[in-house]
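Researcher: We're teaching a course module on how sequence relates to structure. For the next exercise, students receive a sequence and then see the predicted structure as tokens, so they can try to spot secondary structure elements on their own. Here is the exercise chain.
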Amino acid sequence: MCPTHHRAYDQAILLVTEDYRVEIRGHRLAHGDSDATRRTLLDFHGRSLWLPKEEALRPDPELLRKKIELEA
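Model: And here is the predicted structure for the students to work with:
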């Protein structure tokens, strides 16, 4: 993850669903974010993550679900 996406994940702007899709919560974007940052993030909304072939290395869907519940 690049620094922009990492910050967005930490701030619950970018979340990953149980089926490994990116969800961008636009209402959480800061008013000070540049248009380029907004576009960069919003371009990822709905996209699927690239996952490791080995299932053991993939994010745990249950933990992804819990993150979304905590940030609701």
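Model: If you want an answer key for the exercise: The longest helix spans residues 61-71. The chain has a mean pLDDT of 90.
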